[in-house]
Amino acid sequence: MVKPFVPQLVYVEPSALEYPLGQELASKFDKMGIEIRETTSHNQIRNLPGDNDFQKYRMAKSTLVVGVRKTLKFDTSKPSAEFAIPFATGCMGHCHYCYLQTTMGSKPYIRTYVNIDDIFEAADQYMKERAPEITRFEASCTSDIAGIDHLTHTLKKAIEYFGESELGQLRFVTKFAHIDHLLDAKHNGRTRFRFSMNDDYIIKNFEPGTSRQAERIEAARKVGEAGYPLGFIIAPIYLHDGWKEGYKEMFEKLESALPSSSTKDLTFELIQHRFTKPAKNVIEKNYPMTKLELDETKRKWKWGRYGIGKYVYTDQEQEDIKDTLGRYIQTYFPHAKMEYFT
Q1: Separation of alpha carbons 251 and 253, rounded Å
Q2: Whose C-alpha in 16, 28, 83, 284 is 20 to 30 A from the C-alpha of 305?
Q3: CA–CA gap between residue 88 and residue 82 (Å, rounded)
Q4: Long-range contacts of 103-108 (CB under 8 A, 24+ apart)
Q5: pLDDT digits (tens, 9 = 90+) for 186-225
Q6: What is the pLDDT of residue 306?
Q7: Residue 73: per-residue pLDDT
């Protein structure tokens, strides 16, 4: 069982101590006996312990920076929401394939932002501008926010904030099962609680430091019973020997665990495994022993949204993935919605 995240090292921006949450977190980590250092900026952590890049990378993944989010212009988000809402950046998981490894580059440490009222105020402006349309906010584009929320409770506050809003909805996804403190949040059905789910082979081989499949399924059951709208992101869909059986088992376990009430409004998002040239270089540097298949000759080249090309599965493989997983969804969750396959 993966234990809830506890940082080995904490950095605090002085300006973060001007906010109640900043003071609360500094006091909490001090009482836990964690070393606290000062930093002028949450984007400038330069003196991480470690004798080499390998050690420093692992230390960064155990480091939490308490800071103030100055940029409150929200990014246009993923296919599942209108805007990304920034409560945290970075993740303590060690998923070999993760795109954050390239987007975060030399800053793989975890950042949590304490000026949440400013963030809510900015969200409010976006909702007003789009009224009377519903505006959906994605809280996990640059982090696994639920993985640190047992320490910060920022996500819980956000769930309750959107629970009271008329035109806003919140979405996030997690690979962590430490979500019991979120079960009594007053969500009013306005937060879709999604789990990143995969077959056993992929979680065991490529997702170290995250909750295991059985733990995620059990957490999803609890979330369903708490009345949240529920969803699953199956990602990355990765072809390996026995992948069809592996995914079938995963769907069977989900179907037997979930309360029937949560299967009426269930969503699935399917994302095939892909990689870029820069990602391959970073992955092989950070995880030199990985079994991840990164052979460009076996893939199809595809232009990305931002002009960066990526390697995806061949058209025939993609059809096979879509047909196979689409059939499983239809069989085990006939009322579910498949939001997209990419």
Answers
A1: 5
A2: 284
A3: 18
A4: 103/142, 104/142, 107/43, 107/45, 107/60, 108/57, 108/60, 108/61
A5: 999 999 999 999 999 999 999 999 999 999 999 999 999 9
A6: 66
A7: 78
